[in-house]
């Protein structure tokens, strides 16, 4: 996909839809979105999970790990209304 803005929006939409499909909200860091836009030819999103014991850590720890080291968009769970 050659159009940068179109690819960027497709990434944002795919990540948001994947998060909503599991009852969550995508945490989309603009700099990570910029990087994904520049380094991917085709946008896609996949839901992955991890051992629940990692949720015992302060939420900033797994989020930073996903964004800074693994280059993932984390998904936060929606709060009950």
What does this structure look like?
- The protein is mostly helical.
- It has one domain.
- The chain is 47% helix and 7% strand.
- The chain is built from 3 helices and 2 strands, in the order αβααβ.
- The N and C termini lie far apart (39 Å).
- The relative contact order is 0.21.
Largest sheet: 2 strands, antiparallel
Cα(first) to Cα(last) distance is: 39 Å
Stretches with pLDDT under 50, minimum 5 residues: none
Shape: globular
Listing every helix as H and every strand as E from the N terminus to the C terminus, the arrangement reads: HEHHE
Mind telling me the C-alpha Rg?
13 Å
Name the helicity range.
Answer: 40-55%
Portion in beta strands: 5-15%
Structural class, by secondary structure, is mainly alpha
Strand order of the largest sheet: 1-2
Number of beta strands: 2
Q: Please give the domain count.
A: 1
The chain-level mean pLDDT equals 77
The number of helices is 3
Keyword list:
single chain; globular; 2 strands; two-stranded antiparallel ribbon; 3 helices; 81 residues; mainly alpha
Produce the secondary structure layout.
Blueprint: H1 4-21, E1 24-26, H2 30-39, H3 60-69, E2 75-77
Helix pairs in contact: 1-2
Summarize the model shown.
By secondary structure, this protein is mainly alpha-helical. The protein contains three helices and two strands.
């Amino acid at each position: 996909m050659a159009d940068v803005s179109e690819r960027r929006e497709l990434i944002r939409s795919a990540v948001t839809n994947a998060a909503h499909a599991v009852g969550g909200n995508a945490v989309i860091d603009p700099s990570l979105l910029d990087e994904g836009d520049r380094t991917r030819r085709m946008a896609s999103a996949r839901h992955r999970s991890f051992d629940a014991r990692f949720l015992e850590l302060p939420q900033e720890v797994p989020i930073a790990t996903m964004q800074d080291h693994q280059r993932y968009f984390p998904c936060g769970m929606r709060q009950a209304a």
